[in-house]
Amino acid sequence: MVVAKGKEGAAKTTAAASKKRPQRNEKGWQAEKSAMTRSAILEATIQCLLELGYANTTTALIANYAGVSRGAMMHHFPSRISVMRAVIDYLHVLRLQEYRDLMVDIDDPQSSLTDKAIRESVEAAWRYVNLPSFLAYQEMLAASRTDGELRQIIEPVEKDFEKQFLDTVKAVFPHWQNLARLEGAHDMVQFLMKGMALSHMSVRKNARAKRVMTYLTAILHDIYKEADLMEK
To answer: I want to staple 40 with a disulfide (CB 3.0 to 4.6 A). Which of 53, 58, 66, 138 is the partner?
Structure first.
């Protein structure tokens, strides 16, 4: 009887422990599932912005694109502006990382900045402004001109992005020691690339973009060489 009682006690202890373990695993799974749902909603919002535009992107359509229920959508983002705020923050981080990835190793600190490297940086900048992340953000940026609530959210993020973006440019182009010239070159590239990317109705857009990139490469080469001579 004593042995049987001992077995029964051990069985109860094992059962209690087994109940606790799944609870911990369940919490971890729920957290992972929640993160996956949130990520799906953010990606779906970007897709809606690209395909439908800001004005037509509703929470119902986002939920449909994400393949989640309205309840799940409302649980994560109770309003349209709340999901837009999250997407803006999400794109803020993503766009900086995408730029770093595109520009990695273009300006090798161990060798001189060649014409080929300058051309590669221009082509990378063109690819950058054609990424879904860039175009989706521009859609919201344009909408913020007349949407006061959206403007309040996006304005401080845009200011912070501009600062971090310039810091990133300085880091990926170590040969550009003349920072004033680098900032000027950066502004020229960004304004030109943005303009070309958003000119979606232009005739022969790709051919014209190639021609502009050839001119831009030559101009950047001259700016860099002039700045290099000034430093010497």
So the answer is: 66
